[in-house]
Amino acid sequence: MKVNYRISLWNYFHYIHRLSLEQVIDEVRRAGYGIELWPGWFEDRDLYAPLCRERLRVLVAEMPCSLHTGGAKDIHGHQKQIDCAAHIGADVIVIHPGDVADPHGNPDPALAREAVAYAGEKGVTLALENGPLWFLEETIAAVDGLQICIDTGHLYHSAATRDGRKAGMAEYVNALKPRLAHLHLQDPLPKSDHYAIGTGMIPDEDWGCLLAGLEEIHFDGAAVLEVLPRTPLQLAEQSFGHLAGLGWPGPQKLSP
User: Which of 75, 107, 128, 226 could form a disulfide with 8, with the two C-beta atoms 3.0–4.6 Å apart?
Assistant: First the structure.
Protein backbone atom coordinates (compact mmCIF):
# COMPACT_ATOMS: atom_id res chain seq x y z
CA MET A 1 0.00 0.00 0.00
CA LYS A 2 1.21 3.49 -0.89
CA VAL A 3 -0.53 6.81 -0.25
CA ASN A 4 0.27 9.97 -2.20
CA TYR A 5 -0.59 12.88 0.10
CA ARG A 6 -1.84 16.08 -1.47
CA ILE A 7 -3.11 19.46 -0.28
CA SER A 8 -6.33 20.96 -1.60
CA LEU A 9 -6.28 24.44 -3.10
CA TRP A 10 -9.63 24.83 -1.28
CA ASN A 11 -7.77 25.08 2.02
CA TYR A 12 -6.11 28.30 0.95
CA PHE A 13 -9.42 30.01 0.23
CA HIS A 14 -9.85 30.02 4.02
CA TYR A 15 -6.32 31.07 4.88
CA ILE A 16 -5.96 34.44 6.60
CA HIS A 17 -3.17 35.46 4.20
CA ARG A 18 -4.23 35.70 0.57
CA LEU A 19 -1.59 34.21 -1.70
CA SER A 20 -1.31 34.09 -5.46
CA LEU A 21 -1.88 30.77 -7.19
CA GLU A 22 1.84 30.64 -7.95
CA GLN A 23 2.69 31.19 -4.27
CA VAL A 24 0.30 28.48 -3.11
CA ILE A 25 1.58 25.87 -5.53
CA ASP A 26 5.19 26.76 -4.77
CA GLU A 27 4.56 26.46 -1.02
CA VAL A 28 2.90 23.08 -1.41
CA ARG A 29 5.63 21.86 -3.75
CA ARG A 30 8.43 22.94 -1.39
CA ALA A 31 6.68 21.10 1.46
CA GLY A 32 6.83 17.91 -0.61
CA TYR A 33 3.13 17.38 -1.33
CA GLY A 34 1.02 17.11 -4.43
CA ILE A 35 -1.93 19.42 -5.02
CA GLU A 36 -5.63 19.20 -5.85
CA LEU A 37 -6.74 22.18 -7.91
CA TRP A 38 -10.14 23.85 -7.79
CA PRO A 39 -11.84 25.47 -10.79
CA GLY A 40 -11.22 29.07 -9.72
CA TRP A 41 -8.86 31.19 -7.65
CA PHE A 42 -10.19 34.63 -6.70
CA GLU A 43 -9.87 36.74 -9.89
CA ASP A 44 -8.99 33.63 -11.91
CA ARG A 45 -12.58 32.45 -12.05
CA ASP A 46 -12.16 29.69 -14.64
CA LEU A 47 -8.85 27.89 -14.27
CA TYR A 48 -10.04 24.96 -16.38
CA ALA A 49 -10.68 27.17 -19.42
CA PRO A 50 -8.43 26.56 -22.44
CA LEU A 51 -6.62 29.88 -21.99
CA CYS A 52 -5.50 28.91 -18.47
CA ARG A 53 -4.35 25.37 -19.13
CA GLU A 54 -0.80 26.08 -20.22
CA ARG A 55 -0.26 28.25 -17.15
CA LEU A 56 -1.47 25.41 -14.94
CA ARG A 57 0.64 22.86 -16.77
CA VAL A 58 3.79 24.86 -16.09
CA LEU A 59 2.86 25.48 -12.44
CA VAL A 60 2.26 21.81 -11.61
CA ALA A 61 4.99 20.31 -13.80
CA GLU A 62 6.37 17.07 -12.29
CA MET A 63 4.00 17.49 -9.33
CA PRO A 64 1.23 14.99 -8.47
CA CYS A 65 -2.01 16.76 -9.29
CA SER A 66 -5.75 16.12 -9.30
CA LEU A 67 -8.74 18.34 -10.07
CA HIS A 68 -11.90 19.06 -8.10
CA THR A 69 -15.06 19.42 -10.14
CA GLY A 70 -16.43 22.81 -11.00
CA GLY A 71 -19.93 21.39 -11.17
CA ALA A 72 -20.21 19.67 -14.54
CA LYS A 73 -23.92 19.40 -15.32
CA ASP A 74 -23.68 17.97 -18.85
CA ILE A 75 -21.18 16.17 -21.04
CA HIS A 76 -19.69 19.44 -22.27
CA GLY A 77 -18.89 20.45 -18.69
CA HIS A 78 -17.25 17.08 -18.08
CA GLN A 79 -15.25 17.29 -21.30
CA LYS A 80 -13.92 20.74 -20.37
CA GLN A 81 -12.59 19.46 -17.04
CA ILE A 82 -11.22 16.28 -18.56
CA ASP A 83 -9.43 18.18 -21.32
CA CYS A 84 -7.82 20.41 -18.68
CA ALA A 85 -6.73 17.43 -16.59
CA ALA A 86 -5.23 15.72 -19.63
CA HIS A 87 -3.35 18.87 -20.70
CA ILE A 88 -1.74 19.53 -17.31
CA GLY A 89 -1.07 15.89 -16.42
CA ALA A 90 -3.64 15.53 -13.61
CA ASP A 91 -4.56 11.93 -12.88
CA VAL A 92 -7.97 12.21 -11.19
CA ILE A 93 -11.01 14.48 -11.31
CA VAL A 94 -13.21 14.32 -8.22
CA ILE A 95 -16.84 14.73 -9.21
CA HIS A 96 -19.98 15.12 -7.09
CA PRO A 97 -23.25 13.19 -7.27
CA GLY A 98 -24.87 16.25 -8.81
CA ASP A 99 -22.49 15.98 -11.76
CA VAL A 100 -23.98 12.63 -12.77
CA ALA A 101 -27.58 13.02 -11.59
CA ASP A 102 -30.84 13.52 -13.43
CA PRO A 103 -33.16 16.47 -12.64
CA HIS A 104 -34.80 14.41 -9.87
CA GLY A 105 -31.53 13.73 -8.04
CA ASN A 106 -31.26 10.11 -9.14
CA PRO A 107 -28.20 8.65 -10.91
CA ASP A 108 -27.94 9.36 -14.64
CA PRO A 109 -25.95 6.33 -15.84
CA ALA A 110 -25.94 7.43 -19.48
CA LEU A 111 -24.23 10.73 -18.65
CA ALA A 112 -21.81 9.03 -16.29
CA ARG A 113 -20.88 6.39 -18.88
CA GLU A 114 -20.25 9.05 -21.53
CA ALA A 115 -18.06 11.08 -19.16
CA VAL A 116 -16.09 8.02 -18.01
CA ALA A 117 -15.55 6.89 -21.60
CA TYR A 118 -14.25 10.32 -22.61
CA ALA A 119 -11.99 10.46 -19.56
CA GLY A 120 -10.61 7.03 -20.38
CA GLU A 121 -9.66 8.19 -23.87
CA LYS A 122 -7.70 11.04 -22.26
CA GLY A 123 -6.00 8.91 -19.59
CA VAL A 124 -7.94 10.53 -16.73
CA THR A 125 -9.85 8.83 -13.89
CA LEU A 126 -13.20 10.12 -12.61
CA ALA A 127 -13.79 9.54 -8.88
CA LEU A 128 -17.29 10.06 -7.49
CA GLU A 129 -17.29 11.66 -4.03
CA ASN A 130 -19.90 10.85 -1.39
CA GLY A 131 -22.84 11.64 -1.28
CA PRO A 132 -25.39 9.22 0.08
CA LEU A 133 -24.22 5.63 -0.02
CA TRP A 134 -27.24 4.52 -2.04
CA PHE A 135 -26.38 7.00 -4.82
CA LEU A 136 -22.78 5.82 -4.98
CA GLU A 137 -23.71 2.14 -4.96
CA GLU A 138 -26.34 2.48 -7.68
CA THR A 139 -24.10 4.61 -9.89
CA ILE A 140 -21.00 2.42 -9.81
CA ALA A 141 -23.15 -0.69 -10.31
CA ALA A 142 -24.38 0.85 -13.58
CA VAL A 143 -21.15 2.47 -14.77
CA ASP A 144 -18.00 0.44 -15.39
CA GLY A 145 -14.79 2.39 -14.84
CA LEU A 146 -16.23 5.02 -12.52
CA GLN A 147 -14.14 5.15 -9.36
CA ILE A 148 -14.87 6.42 -5.84
CA CYS A 149 -13.50 9.18 -3.62
CA ILE A 150 -14.41 8.76 0.05
CA ASP A 151 -14.58 12.07 1.91
CA THR A 152 -14.12 11.14 5.55
CA GLY A 153 -15.99 14.16 6.89
CA HIS A 154 -18.96 14.19 4.53
CA LEU A 155 -19.50 10.52 5.31
CA TYR A 156 -20.79 11.41 8.79
CA HIS A 157 -23.21 14.05 7.51
CA SER A 158 -24.81 12.16 4.60
CA ALA A 159 -27.96 10.04 4.68
CA ALA A 160 -26.77 6.63 3.57
CA THR A 161 -29.73 4.60 2.31
CA ARG A 162 -32.92 5.17 0.38
CA ASP A 163 -34.83 5.23 3.67
CA GLY A 164 -32.43 7.77 5.22
CA ARG A 165 -30.63 5.38 7.55
CA LYS A 166 -27.13 6.50 8.46
CA ALA A 167 -24.15 4.30 7.72
CA GLY A 168 -20.76 4.46 9.36
CA MET A 169 -17.22 4.17 8.10
CA ALA A 170 -17.24 0.37 7.94
CA GLU A 171 -20.34 0.23 5.75
CA TYR A 172 -18.98 2.84 3.33
CA VAL A 173 -15.58 1.18 3.11
CA ASN A 174 -16.97 -2.34 2.65
CA ALA A 175 -19.41 -1.23 -0.03
CA LEU A 176 -17.06 1.00 -1.99
CA LYS A 177 -13.53 -0.37 -1.60
CA PRO A 178 -13.51 -2.24 -4.92
CA ARG A 179 -13.71 1.14 -6.67
CA LEU A 180 -11.87 3.28 -4.12
CA ALA A 181 -9.21 5.34 -5.93
CA HIS A 182 -9.01 8.66 -4.09
CA LEU A 183 -9.53 10.13 -0.61
CA HIS A 184 -10.48 13.46 0.90
CA LEU A 185 -9.24 13.57 4.48
CA GLN A 186 -10.89 15.79 7.10
CA ASP A 187 -12.47 15.48 10.53
CA PRO A 188 -16.03 16.74 11.12
CA LEU A 189 -17.89 18.09 14.11
CA PRO A 190 -21.59 17.32 14.63
CA LYS A 191 -22.80 20.36 12.67
CA SER A 192 -19.76 21.33 10.60
CA ASP A 193 -16.74 19.77 8.97
CA HIS A 194 -13.33 20.24 7.38
CA TYR A 195 -11.21 20.21 10.54
CA ALA A 196 -7.72 18.79 11.05
CA ILE A 197 -7.55 15.05 11.58
CA GLY A 198 -7.68 14.18 15.24
CA THR A 199 -9.57 17.33 16.22
CA GLY A 200 -13.07 16.20 15.23
CA MET A 201 -15.45 13.39 16.03
CA ILE A 202 -14.06 10.54 13.91
CA PRO A 203 -12.94 7.88 16.41
CA ASP A 204 -9.55 6.27 16.00
CA GLU A 205 -11.19 2.92 15.34
CA ASP A 206 -12.87 4.37 12.24
CA TRP A 207 -9.54 5.61 10.91
CA GLY A 208 -8.27 2.11 11.56
CA CYS A 209 -11.20 0.64 9.65
CA LEU A 210 -10.42 2.84 6.66
CA LEU A 211 -6.74 1.92 6.82
CA ALA A 212 -7.60 -1.79 6.88
CA GLY A 213 -9.75 -1.37 3.79
CA LEU A 214 -6.98 0.51 2.00
CA GLU A 215 -4.46 -2.19 2.85
CA GLU A 216 -6.84 -4.89 1.65
CA ILE A 217 -7.12 -3.34 -1.80
CA HIS A 218 -3.43 -2.35 -1.92
CA PHE A 219 -4.45 1.28 -2.30
CA ASP A 220 -1.96 3.40 -4.21
CA GLY A 221 -4.00 6.53 -4.88
CA ALA A 222 -3.99 10.04 -3.48
CA ALA A 223 -5.21 11.27 -0.10
CA VAL A 224 -6.06 14.97 -0.25
CA LEU A 225 -6.22 17.02 2.94
CA GLU A 226 -9.30 19.30 2.88
CA VAL A 227 -9.27 21.35 6.09
CA LEU A 228 -9.96 24.86 7.31
CA PRO A 229 -6.45 26.08 8.01
CA ARG A 230 -4.69 28.26 10.44
CA THR A 231 -1.62 27.57 8.34
CA PRO A 232 -2.33 24.83 5.78
CA LEU A 233 0.99 23.03 5.92
CA GLN A 234 1.12 23.07 9.72
CA LEU A 235 -2.25 21.36 9.80
CA ALA A 236 -1.11 18.94 7.09
CA GLU A 237 1.80 17.83 9.26
CA GLN A 238 -0.52 17.54 12.28
CA SER A 239 -3.10 15.52 10.39
CA PHE A 240 -0.71 13.15 8.63
CA GLY A 241 1.18 12.73 11.90
CA HIS A 242 -2.03 11.66 13.63
CA LEU A 243 -2.63 9.05 10.91
CA ALA A 244 0.95 7.80 11.20
CA GLY A 245 0.31 7.22 14.91
CA LEU A 246 -2.57 4.95 13.89
CA GLY A 247 -0.39 2.89 11.59
CA TRP A 248 -0.86 4.80 8.32
CA PRO A 249 2.23 5.13 6.13
CA GLY A 250 4.12 8.39 6.40
CA PRO A 251 4.19 10.81 3.47
CA GLN A 252 6.66 10.02 0.73
CA LYS A 253 7.62 13.61 0.09
CA LEU A 254 8.79 14.94 -3.23
CA SER A 255 12.24 16.39 -3.68
CA PRO A 256 12.04 20.22 -3.62
Answer: 226
Tell me if 229 is assigned to some domain. yes
pLDDT at 234: 75
Please give the pLDDT value at position 230. Answer: 67
Residue 178 lies in a domain: yes
State the pTM of this model. 0.90
In CATH, what number is assigned to the domain containing residue 160? 3.20.20.150
**CA–CA distance, 197 with 18 (Å, rounded to integer):** 24
In a domain, 256, yes or no: no
- Containing structural domain, residue 40: 4-245
pLDDT profile of the chain (256 residues), mean per 10: 94 86 96 97 94 97 97 96 98 98 96 98 97 95 98 88 85 96 96 91 96 97 90 80 90 79
- Tally of domains in the chain: 1
The pLDDT score that the predictor gives to residue 253 is: 80
